[in-house]
Amino acid sequence: MTKKIIPKLIGTYLNTLAAVAPSRAGRVGFNVFCTPLAPPVKPHHKQFLEKASLFTFKSGGVDIQGYQWGSGQKKILFLHGWQSHSYRWKKYIEAFSEEEYTLYAFDAPAHGLSKGKYANIPIYSEAIKVFLEQLGAMDTVVAHSMGSFSTLHLLYNHPQFDLGRLVLLGSPGEANDFISFYKNFTGLNDRTFKYIIDYFKQTLGQTPDYYSAPKFATALKIPGLIIHDEGDEEAPYAHAQRIHTAWPQSQLMTTQGFGHNLRAPEVVEMVKDFVMKEQLQKIGAR
Question: What stretch of H or E contains 276?
C-alpha cells in the first residue's frame, strides 16, 4: 500500500507546487524522475565485489566506483541497469577465465558505491565515456537495461570509441515510455507535466523523443547480440525487435520465462558463447 501512496503524494505535491511556482515544480519533478531508489550493497554483495581490484574515477564531478577482475589480454566491460549495481554481474564474471580476460564493471552514478544524487541516460553515458577514455578500448561491452540504452546513446554521439562487439540485455526503447509511466504513476496533471518537460528540454538540450534506442542503434558499425525475454514487463520485447532491425550486424536471441533481469545460467552461456565465438572468428581472420 505504501508503495502506491508515496508516488501519489509526490504527484499531489508537484501539482500543488506547479500552481504557485511553475519553474520550481519543473525542476523538482525532473530531479525526482532522475533519482534512483538504488538498493543497498549488502554484505554478501561486498564480499564478492571486494575480490576485485577496486578503483575510482570522476565523472560529472562525483566519484564512480570501479571493479576489475583478472588480467587477461581480452577486455570486457559490464554495465548494469537502473536501480542496480555491479554485483548483478556475479554469474557473468565467474563464467570467464581471469587468465584470458580482464573484466571490468562500475556502479553508475547514484548507484551502488558510486557517489551522486541523480542518474539519467546522459549522466550514465558520460560515465561510460570517461571510463573508456581512461581504460582504453574494450573487446566487448555487455550492458543491461539502462546500461544498454546509455551505451547506445554514447556510441551514437561518439562513434570514435573502439569496441569490438556489444551485447544488449533487456534494452528499453524510448525515453517517452519512462516519462509517460512517471506521469501516470504519480498522477501528474497536464500542466505540471508540461513544466517538467520544459525543464527536461532546458537541462538536457533535447526533447524526450530524441532518446530512442532504435535510432541510436542505426549508428552501430560493430557486431552485436541482443537478448530479450518475450515476457519482459519493464522493457517490452518489441523494442528489441526494432533495435535489431536498425542494427544490421546484430543477432537477436529471444528467451522465455527469464523476465527482465536475464541472469539465468542459460543467458550467461549465450553471452559467453557469443563472446568466445566472435573472438575465434577474429583470430581466424588474421
Answer: helix 265-284
pLDDT tens digits, 70-80: 999 999 999 99
* Mean model confidence pLDDT for the chain: 94
User: What's the grid cell of residue 35?
Assistant: 533519482
Residue pair 172/148 in contact (Cβ under 8 Å)? The answer is yes
* Chain-centroid distance, C-alpha 118: 14
Rounded CA gap, 284 and 286, in Å?
Answer: 6
Bridge partner list, 74 = 101
What pTM did the predictor assign? 0.94
**pLDDT band, residue 283 (cuts 50/70/90):** very low
3-class SS of residue 190: helix
CATH of range 41-172+211-284; options 3.40.50.20, 3.40.50.300, 3.40.720.10, 3.40.50.1820? 3.40.50.1820
pLDDT band, residue 281 (cuts 50/70/90): low
* Residues 6 or more apart whose Cβ sits within 8 Å of residue 73: 100, 102
SS3 14: helix
Closest to 113 (Cα-Cα) out of 37, 44, 38, 33:
38
**Minimal CA–CA distance to 17: which of 208, 209, 201, 199?**
199
Q: Among residues 93, 61, 55, which one has the least CA distance to residue 77?
A: 93
Return the C-alpha cell found at 254.
529471444
Residue 95 scores a pLDDT above 90: yes
Considering Cα of 133, then 139, then 144, then 150, what sign does the dihedral take?
Answer: positive
Domain boundaries, the chain: 1-33+175-210, 41-172+211-284
Query: H or E stretch including 13?
Result: helix 2-20
Which residue shows C-alpha cell 519553474?
Answer: 23
